[in-house]
């Protein structure tokens, strides 16, 4: 394994043009957790290129040339001999031992319990990050975001190849059961579904074990391919399901439902901004910090909006809601209401403002 380590040490790190991300690395030790194609490797390589080449060692743990037993016996001695300051274990596997160097960076689809590592959750691009790839910031950028979603590499994929690209990415990253569950979640995005309801659906299509399905559902959630939104003050209530990226909708389903895709987009912006939120009947997103409600209404008209507000008036009074943000595609303006300030805000303005 000494020969392999020497080869990896001498390799030049190559990273295409790096675009703005809201997260960055410093000299602390990290584990970076994110779905496939979220940008973990590019974030790491961009950081390594800021260091002196002789001070770091980058290892992709998925390299099939690695024989774990002999590799583990050689790694510490190699790092000590070459005075490695930063060791990167990309596509980390617990089969590779963590050795004693000043800085360790690992990245994986799942979080590992390693106490001395700071954990960074890296999601596909937010709308603000997406704009770094665009040539102009106008309505065409938002339309482009709807077409591509947040996987950065989609900008480099021909339009007729994007669906298969996402499918191949998911087939590589997930096992068969996880992919089947994800496909069903894609059809039910933004709806209230439970693992049991998924089991009841899929058992009619294939022979499955309930325990296996539940474990696969938990794995999908742990890997952040799906996100579950809790009902306010009802932790045991059925949760709403959101996808890690809106590109999964068109890649895994022929169903068209613009309103659900739009709501999923809003949820992901809240997630990436680390804004705690919940749902309730008639309430898309309740933000306790700020006493705010966010409603997804891409093509809002005031009459329908008044009816929607009227239906949740008891919630508004109970939770003393001060602000109602109605996120739209393009419409903006204010609406008078006796209890709350109601603002209609286009998605691109809302996403960049928050």
The structural domain count equals: 3
**Would you report the number of β strands?**
13
Strand % is: 15-25%
CATH homologous superfamily caption of the largest domain: Winged helix-like DNA-binding domain superfamily/Winged helix DNA-binding domain
What is the ordering of alpha helices and beta strands? HEHEHEEEHHHHHHEEHHEEEHHEEEH
Stretches where pLDDT is under 50 for at least 5 consecutive residues are: none
Discrete helix count: 14
Mean pLDDT reading: 94
CA(first)-CA(last) distance:
49 Å
CATH architecture of the largest domain: Orthogonal Bundle
Shape: globular
CATH class of the largest domain: Mainly Alpha
Query: What's the gyration radius in Å?
Result: 23 Å
CATH topology of the largest domain: Arc Repressor Mutant, subunit A
Sheet having the most strands: 6 strands, mixed
Topology:
Blueprint: H1 2-10, E1 30-33, H2 40-48, E2 56-60, H3 68-81, E3 86-90, E4 103-108, E5 118-121, H4 127-130, H5 139-148, H6 162-173, H7 176-187, H8 195-202, H9 210-222, E6 226-229, E7 240-243, H10 247-252, H11 258-272, E8 278-280, E9 283-287, E10 292-296, H12 302-311, H13 313-318, E11 323-328, E12 333-335, E13 341-346, H14 347-353
Parallel strand pairs: 1-4, 1-5, 2-3, 3-4, 10-11, 11-13
Antiparallel strand pairs: 6-7, 8-9, 9-10, 12-13
Helix pairs in contact: 7-9, 8-9
């Amino acid at each position: 394994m000494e020969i392999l380590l020497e080869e990896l040490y001498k390799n030049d790190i190559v990273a295409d043009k790096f675009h703005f991300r809201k997260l960055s690395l410093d000299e602390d030790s990290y584990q970076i957790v994110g779905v496939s194609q979220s940008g973990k490797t590019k974030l790491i390589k961009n950081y390594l290129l800021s260091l002196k080449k002789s001070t770091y060692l980058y290892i992709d743990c998925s390299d099939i040339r690695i024989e774990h037993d002999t590799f583990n016996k050689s790694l510490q001695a190699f790092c000590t001999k070459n005075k490695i300051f930063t060791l990167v274990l990309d596509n980390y596997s617990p089969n590779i031992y963590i050795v004693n160097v000043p800085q360790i960076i690992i990245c994986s689809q799942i979080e590992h319990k390693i106490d001395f590592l700071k954990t960074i959750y890296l999601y596909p691009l937010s709308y603000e990050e997406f704009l770094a790839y665009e040539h102009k910031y106008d309505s065409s950028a938002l339309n482009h975001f709807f077409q591509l979603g947040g996987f950065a590499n989609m900008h480099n994929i021909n339009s007729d190849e994007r669906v298969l690209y996402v499918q191949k990415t998911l087939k590589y990253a997930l096992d068969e059961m996880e992919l089947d569950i994800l496909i069903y979640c894609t059809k039910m995005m933004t709806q209230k579904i439970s693992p049991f309801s998924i089991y009841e659906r899929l058992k009619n299509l294939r022979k499955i074990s309930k325990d296996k399905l539940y474990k696969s559902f938990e794995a999908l959630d742990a890997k952040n391919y799906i996100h579950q939104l809790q009902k306010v003050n009802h932790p045991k209530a059925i949760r709403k399901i959101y996808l890690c990226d809106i590109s999964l909708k068109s890649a895994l389903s022929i169903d068209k439902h613009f309103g659900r895709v739009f709501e999923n987009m809003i949820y992901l912006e809240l997630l990436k901004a680390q804004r705690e939120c919940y749902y309730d009947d008639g309430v898309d997103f309740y933000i306790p910090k700020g006493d705010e409600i966010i409603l997804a209404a891409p093509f809002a008209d005031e009459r329908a909006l008044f009816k929607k507000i009227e239906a949740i008036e008891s919630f508004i009074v109970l939770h003393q809601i001060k602000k109602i943000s109605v996120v739209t595609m393009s419409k903006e303006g204010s609406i008078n209401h006796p209890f709350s300030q109601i603002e209609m805000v286009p998605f691109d303005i809302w996403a960049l403002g928050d």
